[in-house]
TrEMBL record:
Keywords in alphabetical order: Leucine-rich repeat, Repeat
Record organism: Dipodomys ordii
Stretches the record annotates as Disordered: 342-361
Gene3D superfamilies assigned: Ribonuclease Inhibitor
Descriptive protein name: Leucine-rich repeat-containing protein 58
Biased composition (Low complexity): 342-351
The keyword Repeat appears for this protein: yes
Pfam families: LRR_8 (PF13855)
Amino acid sequence: MEEAGAAVAATGEAELNWSRLSVSTETLESELEARGEERRGSREALLRLLLPHNRLASLPRALGSGFPYLQLLDVSGNALTALGPELLALSGLRTLLARNNRLGGPGALPKGLARSPLCRSLQVLNLSGNCFQELPPELLELRALHTLSLGGNQLQSIPADIENLQSLECLYLGGNFIKEIPPELANLPSLNYLVLCDNKIQSVPPQLSQLHSLRSLSLHNNLLTYLPREILNLIHLEELSLRGNPLVVRFVRDLTYDPPTLLELAARTIKIRNISYTPCDLPENLLRYLSSASNCPNPKCGGVYFDCCVRQIKFVDFCGKYRLPLMHYLCSPECSSPCSSASHSSTSQSESDSEDEASVAAHRMQKVLLG
């Protein structure tokens, strides 16, 4: 442990750095106990403990008693299969780095985590490169988290309870097996960075347009063929990464169209002609139906639709270079128009409102990475 002692001396009293020393849990146990005893009579508090790339199979028990003021703990690159109860005693811990271990099985996280002081103190949690097949429910109770990283695991889905993490600013879930994005993800008001690359995602829910703080969205290397039109509402989005997706290369129209029912035709007439009505005139179910009307996005139409619409993929030019396929829902086939052949020119547009949308999109999105 002479090398460890030298490392400690070099980093100062506020940090212990035992990185890449290939020491075992037993060896560290005695050393940490000694350091803890030394500090009990000292005014100097240990704030950072770095133990990456050793041979740790479990957390040293001395963590629970000798380091009450610890703010950062790095145990990455070890052989941990569980984070034991010692973790719960670190009441002031703000950053926990435990990437590239063997975490993921039953008991990988300590019992009582959601009721411990860590629930209020932990802000950064990195569990990337482990073996989690699902997001542990305990993590969804850590309401103070700003950054959560679970990239390179075996996650199959994102639970709807992800919306519990109301303080989350950065969510990294790249390199998993996720197939769907839950709409509840849109209920994270502070989310700035969302990384979902290298998964198996086939579509993006339009609810993501509610992420008004989002600045970067990474969706490369998925199975996307289009994006919802609502993506243009992400007014603070600066970077959108889409490379490696099977994005369609030319305009596609959905030729299947079921005519609207008599109910919908009547409702469309009421809305389009602005026929007035009051709650006394109609049953409650019809009032709800009328309030569910959606405006046709074609500005030359002015129509509305309810249950019957035409799905259409339309390309919008970004920055005069990239053509991004967006999903539109039109009120009738007459509202669609054939798209001109694929071109790199920003002036080559369909006969609808592509030019207006292109200018808005180019202004809002600074980077669209397709290549």
